[in-house]
Amino acid sequence: MAGMDIAVTGLGLVTPGGIGVGPSWAAVCDGRPAAALDPVLANNPVQISCRVPGFDPETLLSARRAHRLDRFVQFALVAAHEAVADAGLDPRTWDGARVGVVLGCADGGPGTVEEQHHVLREQGADRVSPLLLPMQLPNMLAGQTAIEFGATGPNLVVATACASGATAIGTARDLLVLGRCDIVLAGGSEAMITPLVMAGFAQMGALSKRHDDPASASRPFDVDRDGFVAGEGAGILVMERVADARARGAHVHGRIIGYGATADAHHMTSPHPDGTGIEAAVRAALADAGADPDDVQHVNAHGTSTPLNDLSEARMIQRSLRGDPLVTSTKGVTGHLLGAAGAVEAAFAVLSVEHEVIPPVANLVMPDPRIEIKLAQTVTSMPIDLALSNSLGFGGQNTALAIAPA
């Protein structure tokens, strides 16, 4: 399977940087943090989040459909429409049996669950919506996308915590390499910024408490980082075999040329302190790509802005990627999109390779002196022959994607 080229022909983004690839890419290149005080979290111990600005599902999807879909599915459908249009594909004419959907999320629809639990407690069981389960089940992310686009091929939702979106892209690559599909809509979507979920993260001590300056709260690799800021959104990639894409004259943004996935088998929430799991995933992705660690020129790091993750990941990069790649984390702008993070960041890595531009690490004022890697402190223009996008998740999940130009 190694060596088969998989093209990214379509990109769709809904992020705290904006709705669409253009606004999202501009926000990360400009280093404009999206974090702000969130009125929905007004009674929570941590009240900071990164919300998608101006997201009106009734306008974007129609009122009837919007009311029957949880926010995590709404994000995915909007991003998928942009990606399919960008790929120059028409679902009315494609062979749906050869089109797969592989999407990732960490939690499904907790907003719907919390809302309907309130109805149960206040009004009784006979007032709970019959749409509760169809709206909140994680598999509805792929199921509703398949319905929207007439995709009757393999239909999967993967859940590897905050690596979910990247795992979905790697799984989609496998399906294409194996010939199971000709086109796959791959990526992730998440809408977990609810009072209950954020209270849980806060009780774990995982979130930044920088209430006096929310915009600077997400600060990957900075010496003063104190936790992540939760974000929401979706990233969808249209993936095809390069030969098929070129045969139909499609524009290729970049190629997914390697995929690696491992488990730390170490701790339910903390990454392995030596980064051995993500290092193994990186080495597997490079082997799949037929590349050497010295070849990597850019890394879009997981870089959560938490003390443990940033240090262990940075030490892994320093130890294993000897070519001194330029490293960024776009979470300084978007916050941590949880199950969607890996997909959105893979899309940003594809855009970096395509446009030869590396976004800066927003809010990086003083790098942690224990971190000895080359960090992008300003937007940087440079040709990139090989990039990596790293993703880690609770439970010790690790995914690495190797990305090359068209």
Task: Characterise the protein shown here.
The chain has 406 residues and is of the alpha/beta class. It contains 14 helices and 16 strands. The strands form three sheets. Strands 1, 2, 5, 6, 7, 8, 9, 10, 11, 13, 15 and 16 form a twelve-stranded mixed beta sheet that branches. Strands 3-4 form a two-stranded antiparallel sheet. A hairpin with a 2-residue loop joins strand 1 (6-15) and strand 2.
Q: Roughly how much helix do the residues carry, as a percent range?
A: 25-40%
Structural class: alpha/beta
In total, how many beta strands? 16
**How is the main sheet built?**
12 strands, mixed
CATH superfamily of the largest domain, by name, is: Thiolase/Chalcone synthase
Radius of gyration: 20 Å
* SSE sequence, one letter per element: EEHEEHHHEHHHEHEHEHEHEHEHHEEEEE
General form: globular
- The CATH class of the largest domain is Alpha Beta
Low-confidence stretches: none
